Automatic annotation (TrEMBL):
<dbReference type="InterPro" id="IPR026983">
    <property type="entry name" value="DHC"/>
</dbReference>
<dbReference type="GO" id="GO:0051959">
    <property type="term" value="F:dynein light intermediate chain binding"/>
</dbReference>
<feature type="domain" description="Dynein heavy chain tail">
    <location>
        <begin position="1"/>
        <end position="147"/>
    </location>
</feature>
<dbReference type="GO" id="GO:0005858">
    <property type="term" value="C:axonemal dynein complex"/>
</dbReference>
<dbReference type="GO" id="GO:0007018">
    <property type="term" value="P:microtubule-based movement"/>
</dbReference>
<dbReference type="InterPro" id="IPR013594">
    <property type="entry name" value="Dynein_heavy_tail"/>
</dbReference>
<protein>
    <submittedName>
        <fullName>DYH5 protein</fullName>
    </submittedName>
</protein>
<dbReference type="GO" id="GO:0045505">
    <property type="term" value="F:dynein intermediate chain binding"/>
</dbReference>
<dbReference type="Pfam" id="PF08385">
    <property type="entry name" value="DHC_N1"/>
</dbReference>
Length: 147
């Protein structure tokens, strides 16, 4: 069920800022960390031992699911790590007036550029574009509040 949810297209409000992106990935990380913890439990290992001894055909499906869960957990961990590196640059978008937030923009753009070039999972144009939209949304929200 968690993997099916993970594969679905995200539906979110049009005015979300970059904090929402970090929160989204933190929730995903929490879910997948819990699943990974369960996969390492003695009960699961015992069941896998029985399936292996019985040469069950379910092992192939199990391994495929295990790989998908591990990959999703790694993606969430990686994305959270990189989005945390953005936090100091996008905080002024939440806490400053439009004139003051201008100073944070070069660092923010450089960090997003670094994320795109280094991140294993967050380097698609779709994800980077979505992040830029969220940054822009927050800038607009801050400007509206200032006015």
């Amino acid at each position: 069920k968690v993997l099916a949810e993970n594969d679905q297209v995200r539906k979110e409000a049009d005015d979300l800022g970059p904090r929402a992106e970090l929160d989204y990935w933190k929730k995903k990380l929490s879910k997948f960390d819990y699943l990974m913890e369960q996969l390492k439990s003695p009960d699961v290992k015992a069941v896998l031992g029985v399936l292996t001894a019985a040469k069950s055909k379910l092992l192939k499906k199990w391994r495929a699911l295990d790989i998908r869960i591990t990959d999703a957990a790694n993606e969430a961990k990686d994305n959270v790590k990189y989005l945390y590196s953005l936090e100091k640059y996008y905080n002024p978008l939440y806490n400053s007036d439009p004139v003051s937030m201008v100073d944070a923009i070069p660092g923010l753009i450089n960090t997003i550029k670094m994320i795109q070039s280094i991140s294993r999972y967050y380097n698609t144009s779709e994800k980077i574009s979505s992040l830029f939209v969220k940054v822009t949304n927050q800038m607009i929200t801050a400007c509206k509040s200032y006015i």
